Amino acid sequence: MPLIVTGTIGIDTIYTPDAVAEKVLGGSCTYFAAAASFFTQVRLVAAAGGDFHDDYRAVFAKFPNVCVEGLEIRPASKTFAWGGKYFDNWNQRETLFTELGVLAEHPPKIPAAYQDSKYIFLANSHPTVQLELLRAFPKRVVSVLDTMNLWIDTAREELRAVMREIDGLIINDEEARMLTDIRNPITAGKKIIAEMGPMFVVIKKGEHGCILVHDEGVAMLPAYPVESVIDPTGAGDSFAGGMMGHLAAAHSKDVNISMASIQQALAHGTVIASFTIESFSLDRLARLTKDEVAKRYTDFQEMVRV
Amino acid sequence: MPLIVTGTIGIDTIYTPDAVAEKVLGGSCTYFAAAASFFTQVRLVAAAGGDFHDDYRAVFAKFPNVCVEGLEIRPASKTFAWGGKYFDNWNQRETLFTELGVLAEHPPKIPAAYQDSKYIFLANSHPTVQLELLRAFPKRVVSVLDTMNLWIDTAREELRAVMREIDGLIINDEEARMLTDIRNPITAGKKIIAEMGPMFVVIKKGEHGCILVHDEGVAMLPAYPVESVIDPTGAGDSFAGGMMGHLAAAHSKDVNISMASIQQALAHGTVIASFTIESFSLDRLARLTKDEVAKRYTDFQEMVRV
User: Fold this and answer.
1) In the 8-state DSSP scheme, what is residue B273?
2) CB of A136 within 8 A of CB of A109?
3) Which residue of A has its CA nearest to B212?
4) For residue range B234-261, what is the model confidence (pLDDT) as tens digits?
5) Contact state of B222 with A227 under an 8 Å Cβ cutoff
6) B219 with A264: Cβ contact below 8 A
């Protein structure tokens, strides 16, 4: 089932306690698409600037399931650039710089061939842009939204408007609290479902895993235990990509977003994200095999067996 | 299989953001024994003072599987008393006062009838006391140790001595880090197993669940999602009690502490602990039924299904 992602291409500079990566390929769309491509074909809609050189493009070529027809290059503009620094505990990071570049311009154009897309993932961007993009896919079956603290603070009404039209929301625990004024993530998730539109909410807790609040019930998953974290950047987007990729691949007439199918999809998202953080940028995903994914998935099943 | 726990009886005064409980029954032994009693008979070895009045004793009477023959009352002494305050996020607590009472005296005597105990849980106390108690059970099959930051700081050599003789260790993530100087809990757990004696380590993460590092592999479990936390006191001891109770009840000749049996036991500990925090003291456990435990266990299985 065609899956589409709209979001950012980024050129990241990342400082970790152990190393530095300068001007590497990043962005929500990038991580999402690479992760989802292990399960299904992914269509990418994003913009980049004249500084998006061939080496970056070559990275996408390593993921044959990612269609980059919707990658719009604007030669006179600059690609979104982000600099971040992680501290010893890996859970805290500081943004060193943000250069919006193409993100400050109009949204990218959606190729005509993409308009029949059924599975839609709206990676983090301004909720008004997200709503416009969402409505560009009238044949959508499942739509899921990511957002961030900035929009909860500064564009809450616009965010609430797009939330009314989507099926699922992916946020972190702090964002769930901001959105509801409720600390308990389960209670917060239930309020979102009862009052704000989505049928399910995935609450990400980083190294502590995730919680699913669904109108059928509640589920939890720990993260896969990675001992050698190199760079956590992109973990959340890879997690979302693995989840949506698995959902789209498992599409059927009736159970697209049943509790059980999302639980399964989240486990696959967890596994893909665990590979992402084993290197900078897409290095690990670019040399990841389906066999490795299947093996780690089986290991993960054993690890969380009750 | 006979399970024994040595630890503290406490008289707790607890402030939460919503309520206060004054001079209620607590202590590591108490929570542990009550929790374990849902799965097996538990023998308790602990001391209390002349202020341990009939109302406290009556609480134990609500758990017919708890044998209190080893509860030693010292009329001229005072029971260990602890005062604590929880803050809005429930994860942080401040100790308001600690009155050692009987804990500053000699360890309790072990009844002759207890000397054949096979499953031993050494709840938190000075490691020298723990070692002496451990050696009082020559027929032990499985012994598990709890400890705390204080002993890691002030009695590390004595702690290492008792660790060399036990099968399992239960600690929290911060204690795992203190013990090994390693932040990653998996890596820390592996170091403990490789170098310090235990065959398995359970690392507690509070509301984020637990990690098992075992010489057969690694496992994780989320916590059961409780929306209405009244008082987290005793969660860790109940968790350990549920785990050990289930292990002792499931005793067999070969697989007492296999990876799979501990995983199952941890899930039962998780379920019991989730009830404990729904009230102050042992209020919830005292009216808990085996059917409720079985129901929540089944729900939990569904929630973590991969």
Assistant:
1) H
2) no
3) A303
4) 999 999 999 999 999 988 766 679 999 9
5) no
6) no
What is the C-alpha R_g of chain B? 18
ipTM summary value: 0.92
Verify whether the Cβ–Cβ distance A187 to B227 is below 8 Å.
yes
CB B16 within 8 A of CB B41: no
pLDDT at B131 over 90: yes
Q: How far is A177 from chain B (nearest CA, A)?
A: 12
Give the distance from residue A268's alpha carbon to the nearest chain B alpha carbon, in angstroms. 9
The pLDDT, as a whole number, for residue B255 is 67
CB contact under 8 A, A219 and B304: yes
pLDDT digit string (tens) for A235-264? 999 999 999 999 999 887 666 799 999 999
Find the CB nearest B301 among A300, A302, A306: A306
Helical packing angle, B259-276 and B28-36, nearest 10°:
110
Give me the percent of chain B exceeding a pLDDT of 90.
92
When divided into structural domains, chain A yields a total of: 1
CATH classification of the domain holding B259: 3.40.1190.20
DSSP conformation class of B233: T
Q: What is the per-residue pLDDT across B47-66, written as a single tens digit (0 to 9) for each? A: 999 999 999 999 999 999 99
Q: Per residue in B177-201, pLDDT tens?
A: 999 999 999 999 999 999 999 999 9
Residue B20 CB contacts under 8 Å (≥ 6 apart), including other chains:
B13, B14
CB spacing of A304 vs B221 below 8 angstroms = yes
List CB contacts (< 8 A) between A301 and chain B. Answer: 306
* pLDDT < 70 stretches in chain A: 253-255
What Rg, from alpha-carbon coordinates, does chain A have?
Answer: 18
Check CB contact under 8 Å for A227 and B300. no
pLDDT of residue B251: 81
Residue A292, both tokens: 């490795």
Q: Which residues of A touch B208 (CB under 8 A)?
A: 205, 208-209
Q: Residue A255's pLDDT is what?
A: 67
Q: Which residues contact B295 (CB under 8 A, 6 or more apart)?
A: none
As to burial, measured by CB atoms within 10 angstroms (0-12 exposed, 13-18 middle, 19+ buried), residue B286 is: middle
Cα separation, B177 vs B185, whole angstroms? 7
Residues of B contacting chain A (CB within 8 angstroms) = 88-89, 183-187, 205, 208-209, 211, 217-223, 225, 227, 229, 260, 263-264, 267, 300-306
**Under an 8 A CB cutoff, do A306 and B219 touch?**
no
Q: How many CB pairs under 8 A join A and B?
A: 80
CB contact under 8 A, A264 and B306: yes
For residues A91 and A74, the answer to whether their CB atoms sit within 8 Å is no
State which residues form the domain around B122. 3-303
CB A165 within 8 A of CB A197: yes
Of the partner residues B184, B222, B260, the one whose CB lies closest to the CB of residue A221 = B222
Closest approach of B132 to chain A, Cα-based (Å): 35
Would the pLDDT of B78 be above 80?
yes
pLDDT at B34 over 80: yes
Buried b (16+ CB within 10 A) or exposed e, A58-90: ebbeebeebbbebbbbbeebbbbbbbbebeeeb
